[in-house]
Amino acid sequence: MIEIALAIHIILFVGLVIGLNERGFVNLYSGLSLYLVFHFVVFVQRPLIVYLFDLRSEFEFMNFMPTEDVFLQTLFVADVGLLSFIAAYVMALGFRPMEPTFHYIRPSRTEARSLLISFLLLAPLIFYSFFLAVTMRQTYGVTVFQQLGEINMTIDPATGQKLFADTTAYVVNARNFAFPFAALLIQMRRGRWWSYIALFFCALIALQLGERWEIVISTLVASLMTLYVHKRRAFTSIHYAGMVIVLALFVMIGQNRDSLIRFLTTGAIEFSFDIAKSSFGAHPDFANFDFLSFVVAKVPAVSGTYSYFTQYLGILTQPIPRVLWPDKPVGSPIQWVNLAAYGNFGSRTTSLVGDGWISLGYIGVVVTLGLCGSFFGTAFRRFCQPGISIYFYCAYFWMVGLLLQWARDGGYKILDFFLFCIGPLVLAYVIERMFFGRPVPVADSP
């Protein structure tokens, strides 16, 4: 039965991609295309690999083994999420495919001033965070940072989440505020080779800490911005080569998170790689199908209830630094579903589909993925209109890039990434409106 279900699952995905592409909805710059890639990696190829090679490492880690019924239901839930995203996305476009204008967006004088003021205001935090990145321990499991200093951290006993004890993540990770300014340089210099240095410097600082999302998202953003500046509708061979390199780095760093730090601090070279234990094998990186099967099996059968979207109440408490509120609850102040109580789910992610299932089963999946698809459809429709501001132009690329992170992690934690990658642009917009007024947009050059 699983073989038949997998065949139908794959045929459905391929049919959707072909149909959307023939109707012009699959666009390089759209969130739809990126979600299709994500769905393929974690919900199409992953269950196939899990079944064919009997991968059990993640199930054993979670102290859980899915039955055939749970396996089949997980495939169906993933497909419901995909169809909900596609339907809402297409509706947001008015059922009409759209294309970017490929007009070169340049900031007006007041926009440039506002962006400069925004950078100057954030610069002290950015440079202090860079200082922390090269002198103190910030990441989990990289023990060599203890030789250089340490930021005190605690572990929440209920969720297993690592928490800063005597500082705040807003300060420690403030270096990420530099990303939108670094990407803006690529736009301003029309993709000249040296305009990428700032962006990849920011990503490499995170890389030497064992963090990977920055290098993946920044590479994607840089590639999309370069293609747009050169009015291309598809990736070139150079971009494909770059993505292969970044994917290889992502996979290898997953197994060697502290190798670069150890080399920089001790000179020792320790590197290992096992394809069977890589991100495409017995590793949690692309194992969202495994995690989703856990979620589907435990909620509401074991939890006894859905969360009814109460996990999003954490949006109200998240902005308050823990250094100011030591007893701040981890996540939502109301927790009706705690996956860590039903198995070893620590450090695993629910995905956006799983988060919807936790909220209200199939209805939650349709609502969550529908809202996400509508959001990215509306954003793409706006992106394709002439006369957009430099703020929205730059923010759009980061929104699309961060969809990968949101789809993988689920929940409201994506707001942290939005804060760092889009927040400085919002700040510049507010500065312009408050101090310079909103000028007449500069006409786009063809």
What does this structure look like?
The protein is mainly alpha-helical and 446 residues long. Helix content is 59%, strand content 1%. It has helices spanning 2-22, 31-52, 57-61, 68-92, 109-135, 169-172, 178-188, 197-207, 213-229, 237-255, 259-266, 288-298, 314-317, 351-383, 390-409, 414-436, and strands spanning 153-155, 162-164. A two-stranded antiparallel ribbon has the order 1-2. It is globular, with a radius of gyration of 22 Å. The termini are far apart.
Structural class: mainly alpha
Can you give the helix content as a percent range?
Answer: 55-70%
Arithmetic mean of pLDDT: 85
Instruction: Output the radius of gyration.
Output: 22 Å
User: How much of the residues is beta strand, in percent?
Assistant: under 5%
**Unreliable segments (pLDDT under 50, ≥5 consecutive)?**
137-150, 440-446
The total of beta strands comes to: 2
Q: How many distinct helices?
A: 16
Strand order of the largest sheet: 1-2
State the end-to-end distance.
56 Å
- Rough outline: globular
Output the helix-strand order: HHHHHEEHHHHHHHHHHH
Reported for the largest beta sheet, the result is: 2 strands, antiparallel
